[in-house]
Amino acid sequence: MKLFAPLYERAMQWARHRHAPWYLGGMSFAESSFFPIPPDVMLAPMALARPEKAWLYAWITTLASVAGGVFGYFIGLLAFDAIEPWLQTSRYWGAYQTATQWFDEWGVVAVFIAGFSPIPYKVFTIAAGALSMALLPFTLASVVGRGARFFLVAGLMRWGGARMEAQLRQHIDRLGWATVALVALGAAAYLALKG
């Protein structure tokens, strides 16, 4: 069933849109403080569609993401009491508790790890503010962690270029269904371990 091929074609069209860098910046900002979808899903096809602009897109993503992280920091610093009841009932409460534990153990290194990894960075930005972490080390760790991640994504797409796009186009449905299967298996394993 060809479900992912049309979605891939649409993503590549959006990636070539003249306003795509603005959308990428907005998504990167929002994801760092409240939006659930990571900017990689937009950065990768944009860098693949326009490899000559991959580094520019990585900079846009990094700077907007760090700005959003600072926004999340101030949410935690100034409004944590207002969002805590929602946070406790959301799926992010466990991640928030992990973030506070990591800050106790590793300090600012936790921000770098969250910035680079698929861990929800937004939770760490809010936790850093709620715990009154020093803003300058938080920002520097965010720049390094987020920058490393987004420049890696952009670099891989730039390196792969037309070859990678052709391979993705050919195998996108198999890759899409494999990803769905892995997510389902991961969710089942998580529920089995939790229960």
UniProtKB/TrEMBL annotation:
TM ranges are 20-37, 57-81, 102-121, 127-154, 175-193
Give the InterPro entries listed for this entry: DedA_domain, VTT_dom
Keyword terms of this UniProt record: Membrane, Transmembrane, Transmembrane helix
The VTT domain, residue ranges: 40-156
For whether the record's keyword set contains Transcription, the answer is no
In this record, what's one Pfam family? Answer: VTT_dom
Q: From what superkingdom does this record's organism come?
A: Bacteria
Say yes or no: keyword Kinase present. Answer: no
This chain belongs to the protein called YqaA family protein
